[in-house]
Amino acid sequence: MFYVKKKIRDKFFIRLGSLVLFFFIALISISYFILRNYSLKNAFNTSKIVIQESDDKINQLFNEIELLAKSIANLKTIQKQRYYDMAELFFSLVKPRNKYIRSIYFGNEMGFFLQRGFGDKVFDKNGVPLINPKDYDPRKRPWYKKAKKENSFIITSPYIYTSGIPGITCAIPIFSTKQKFIGVLGIDLTLKQLTHFISDLDIYKGSIGILVNQKGKIIVSKNLRRSGISSTFRSMKDVTKIKTKLPELTLKEKNLILSSQKGKLITYINNKKIILVYKNNKILNWRLLIAIPFREVMKNGKQMLSILIVAAIIVLTLLTLLMNLEIKALVKPILNLTCSAKKIKEKKFQERIQISTANSENELGRLERTFNDMTEMIQVFTEEMKGLVNARTKQLEKANKNLERANYKMKTDLKLARKIQTAIFPKAFPELKKLKMTSLYKPMEELGGDYYDVFKITNKRIGLLMVDVAGHGLPSAFITAMVKISFMNHSKKGLSTGNTLQFVHDELFHVISDLGYYFTCFYGVLNLKDLTLEYTNAAHRGGYHINAKKELMHLKTKSSFVGILDEPNFETKLKTLEPGDKLVLYTDGIVEARNHEKKILGNERFEKILLSKYYGNNYQVDFEE
């Protein structure tokens, strides 16, 4: 008894523990995915906002530079090339904007070049360049050529200044007061100065901001090496040969970034999971990117998940202790129910449970009383059932005898119907010198819908008929008898085979179509005098003509089923036969027959059998009848 009690309690604990463990794992998994998705969504949204702000700053800067360039270009000081005034003007404009603008300069068609700038240890305190390259001709510089060619405000690709510093140039063509082209005004921005626009992109620890051109090369980056992202950007001496590209991204990911206006993706760089958020700057056609270490995004989520796991363990521990107390209270009543149920199984219906005082008013007590009531009902019901079973057994024996008699009568009637149907088939073929005939009939059931007939129409004309009624059984057999009678009546009118079929159809259509039946048939008239075959094939599958040249030809006409259409069309054809030719008529039961491997015979193999049979091709067919 103690062993049984312990076994039940152990089962409860195992099942309860499994259930608790399942819910614990499910809770942690769901919490992880919720926190993960929340952290990712927050990172994506924050990145989008920060990128948009940086993009707006870049747009604002270059719009201001374009406005500044156009304003300078319209000044008479520039248009009349007053070099002293131009020098003071350039320096006064650069100095307050030195955070973003390195220098402003002017080159004319005569090769003259004037520049004023600030900082970079390249200019003195008055903005005069400390380095003056010999033979410097502004007309040969890319910014000059591009502005002159496009005749509008332009922004160059990154290149190396003569001072050895990489940067970009904004340039605009200058025209005289008489609208004659006289030179180009240029405004330089170093790549270092552009880092101010991506400094705000460091929104997470270890995250970096990157500015990438339309070819995927990194133009400006901040904390690239500190982030752990590998780079081959060793020197800025030749910007046109910059090798720094989006590192370790697949071709598909690079194409996605370079072809999309904005987006996001999660990838791996240096075996570290990285979140990339990017947006295209329409003015420069460069991409702003934020690369964020995945672990930094998930750090807060993992902390919250750890707290949740600890809290869940504490709650589940308390729950397990409480359930242990409840299980102990449940075990004894359940054990009593189990023992009583075993006795009921042994057909000891007099068994009753002794209800304890402690459980008399709770659910277990009500369950025990219900069990006793059920046992008493089973006992009464069993005794009543014995009497009913005996009575019903006698009734079934009587009904079985009646069914046997009815079945015997039905089989007898079917045999009689089979004999009647067999009687309408030709018992012998007409004895003719020019014609030799043979046949085989095997119905699928006791009664079938297949029928054939060979009969004399005149001394020189023989009728050949092959019919296949849709379906099987008694209705199909009756229809074959009706078809025989109809053909016998109309075939002697001297009509063509198509017209004969038309009369048969008109006579039977309303009878069989209302019952949902129809049939196919082949009707031919063989003229023994000149060996011609007049025939009509009413949608019937089986009809071959095999000549002495080993050629097998289908006997088909453009004719419809009999019994389906109100106004069908039955075509008549004529074929001349030669001595030794064969005619093969059959129903679809032959080609649809299967062997012991359930393999169907089919038209192709049946045709090969016919050729082998009549012309000795020794064709072997894997088929058993």
Written overview of the protein:
The protein is of the alpha+beta class. The protein has eleven helices and 19 strands. Strands 1, 2, 3, 4, 5 and 6 form a six-stranded antiparallel sheet that branches. Helix 1 packs antiparallel against helix 7 (294-345), helix 7 crosses helix 8 (363-424) and helix 8 (363-424) runs parallel beside helix 9. The longest helix has 72 residues, at 2-73. It is flat, with a radius of gyration of 51 Å. It starts with a helix and ends in a 10-residue tail after the last helix.
Any low-confidence stretches, pLDDT <50, length ≥5? 225-246, 618-625
Mean pLDDT: 79
Global Rg: 51 Å
* Helix content estimate: 40-55%
Task: Note the overall shape.
Answer: flat
- Count of strand segments: 19
Please state the structural category.
Answer: alpha+beta
Q: Strand portion, in percent?
A: 15-25%
For the sheet with most strands, the description reads: 6 strands, antiparallel
Span of the ends, CA to CA: 69 Å
* Helix-strand topology string: HHHEEHEEEEHEEHEEEHHEEHHEEEEEEH
Number of helices: 11
